[in-house]
Structures are given as structure tokens and as C-alpha cells.
Write a structure and sequence with these properties.
eight-stranded mixed sheet; 202 residues; 6 helices
Length: 202
């Protein structure tokens, strides 16, 4: 069973639909006991970093997600959900993230001809040997919608990068923790393969 965390900040339906299409058993839930009893957990998210952390904390789900990480259950953050795995964001100064991985969320710098938010398809530079990207060709295109990006402290945590006026750490993989700044559930066959790889993790 894969739990999809409902904390009023996610595009839950599209993630649920993608996982069901892949033949996975999924449960959209905000109940701590259901999240903790799942085999794997997905933390989706759209919106503002500060609001999302407020929602997680109010429901006690920040503690639940840290326990998921401590129990070494595979945890996948998508878009804002990936950003929340890290320490803090320029979007919401003073608000602490889950702090499960070291790194900061920064605003994409303005540049001539560069539209923010970054919205649309971009290709990935994939680091070899990462579980999420098994059988995914390098330079595959995936779909992004974001104004803030990850700068990870540890390059070893980065599974894939892309370029959009700046080098973006677009995906992470560290132990049982996984993240995609892009939306795999909206990224066609490539995205479905990434989600399938997460579902197959051991």
C-alpha cells in the first residue's frame, strides 16, 4: 500500500490516478496511523512553503513524516513536497521545513527572456545509478511548474538536474528519501516510469 498524504496542499487526484494506472494500491489519507502503516509514502504539494508547513504541523503530520523517514520507509516528495523535505525556503523566511535532508530552497533568479514561474517541459541531466531513474534515458523531458528551486548541500543527494537560468537540483535520492521538483504524474511515459520505479523500490 502506498499512502498519499492529504494536507490541503496537493494535487492529490492526479498522483492517485497515475499510481492506480500503474496498478498500485493507494490510499489518500491524513490519518497518522494509515500513513505509518503504509509500505511507501508520497508527499505531493502545490502552493506556498509556509502554508504547507503550517498545514502539516497543525495536523501533526510533520512528526509523522519524520517517523516515516526514521523507519526507513520509502518517501517521495513531489514539487512542493520535495522542497518540504529540506531545511527552509526563501519563499517563507523563518519557517523551518522537515529538515530530513540538508539544503535550501531559493527563488529562481530573474533573467532576460526567462519566465517565472518556470512552467513547461525541461530535460533532465540524470546522475547514474539512481533507483528512480532506472531505464529512464538521460535528457528525458519532464513537466515543471515552480518559482523556487532546490540547492542541495550534498551533491551525492542529487539524482537529476536541469538548467533554467540557473542549475536546478531537480530530483533527489538519499537512502529512503526521494524527491522530484517536477510533476512525474504530468510527465507522460517518462513520469510514469519514474513513479513505477518508486513503487518497485524494495
Amino acid at each position: 500500500m502506498i499512502a498519499i498524504v492529504d494536507y490541503n496542499a496537493g494535487n492529490l487526484k492526479s498522483v492517485e490516478k497515475a499510481m492506480l494506472y500503474l496498478g498500485q494500491k493507494v490510499l489518500v489519507t491524513s490519518r497518522p496511523e494509515e500513513i505509518l502503516s503504509a509500505d511507501k509514502v508520497i508527499l505531493p504539494g502545490v502552493g506556498a512553503f509556509g502554508d504547507a508547513m503550517k498545514n502539516l504541523t497543525a495536523a501533526g503530520l510533520d512528526t509523522v513524516l519524520r517517523e516515516v523517514a526514521d523507519r526507513k520507509k520509502p518517501l517521495l516528495g513531489i514539487c512542493l513536497g520535495m522542497q518540504l523535505l529540506f531545511e527552509e525556503s526563501e519563499e517563507s523566511p523563518g519557517v523551518k521545513g522537515l529538515g530530513l535532508l540538508p539544503g535550501l530552497i531559493l527563488r529562481i533568479p530573474a533573467a532576460p527572456g526567462l519566465k517565472i514561474p518556470h512552467m513547461g517541459w525541461n530535460n533532465l541531466k540524470i546522475n547514474s545509478g539512481k533507483s528512480l531513474y532506472r531505464s529512464v534515458p538521460d535528457s528525458s523531458y519532464v513537466y515543471f511548474v515552480h518559482s523556487y528551486y532546490l540547492k542541495a548541500n550534498d551533491p551525492e543527494d542529487v539524482a537529476a538536474r536541469c538548467e533554467y537560468g540557473v542549475t536546478i537540483d531537480a530530483s533527489v535520492e538519499s537512502g529512503n528519501l526521494y524527491g522530484c521538483q517536477f510533476h512525474p504524474e504530468k510527465s507522460g511515459d517518462v513520469g510514469l516510469k519514474i513513479l513505477s520505479n518508486f513503487a518497485d523500490i524494495g
